[in-house]
Write a structure and sequence with these properties.
Strand content: 5-15%
Number of domains: 1
Radius of gyration: 19 Å
CATH class: Alpha Beta
Number of helices: 9
Shape: globular
CATH topology: Rossmann fold
CATH architecture: 3-Layer(aba) Sandwich
């Protein structure tokens, strides 16, 4: 028996014992997530805020920028997310981020590539970093995995241009102003930034505090443009 035959036999036995299931709902099927879960992901499209990508009511006469971007402009030049943070997309992100389902990096990156390409040209991608202690506990940085998959699809290099300097408490349960205080001083910029247009990759745009702080540092280090790129963003009352 050849090695390839043994590998096929092993894979066949594993499939019988542990048949592939949708990482979101558990349905038996071959893809990482099923068609029903994919259809349940609410995409974000125009009209949206020209800067932060917040979707507007298509029937309303909306200004070019949302109220927050007019009153407190972020340092990034634009932000784009593939879908609204909720339903099956929220479950997929949680499985990817907290349950160790790394295989979701590729289909979630494809969702971004299809739905939310950068509105302006960029030279490279950089992930929002995790603190080394947090990354060691989780085993990976989900933003880096996502950036690597996006880089392969967009033919862009992925570079570590930021680093964590403090291991801050999780942001999820903090109100907006506390989130901003929480991330201030939690990152530092590296070299090789000046004059470059950078795609800043993270999983979710919630209040934008992390993306604002990272963009501020990239711009201070000389980045010509920064585009924040996420799988999803919160909208309305969940923001």
């Amino acid at each position: 028996m050849t090695v390839s035959f043994l590998h096929e036999l092993r894979d066949g036995l594993l499939s019988l014992l542990f048949p592939p299931r949708c990482a979101v709902c558990g349905t038996l099927q071959e893809a990482v997530y099923c068609d029903a879960c994919r259809e349940g992901m609410v995409r974000i499209g125009e009209p949206w805020c020209a800067q932060c990508g917040l979707p507007f009511d298509p029937l309303a006469h909306a200004p070019e920028h949302c109220e927050e971007c007019r009153s407190d402009p972020p340092h990034f030049d634009a932000a784009r997310a593939a879908g609204r943070y909720g339903g099956s997309l929220r479950l997929a992100i949680h499985a990817f981020k907290y349950a160790g389902v790394r295989a979701l990096a590729a289909p979630l990156a494809a969702l971004i590539a299809d739905a939310a390409p950068p509105p302006i040209p960029i030279d490279c991608l950089t992930p929002v970093p995790l603190h080394p202690a947090r990354e060691a506990m989780r085993g990976y940085n989900q933003s880096r995995l996502l950036a690597e998959e996006l880089g392969a699809q967009w033919c862009l290099p992925v570079e570590e241009l930021l680093r964590r300097t403090r291991n801050i408490p999780p942001q999820q349960q903090l109100p907006r102003e506390e989130r901003r205080r929480n991330v201030h001083g939690a990152f530092a910029a590296g070299d090789g930034i000046a004059g470059r247009a950078i795609g800043l990759v993270d999983d979710v745009y919630t209040t934008g505090s992390t993306l604002r702080e990272c963009s501020r540092l990239l711009k201070a280090a000389g980045a010509s443009r920064v585009v924040a790129i996420t799988i999803a963003r919160t909208v309305g009352e969940t923001q």
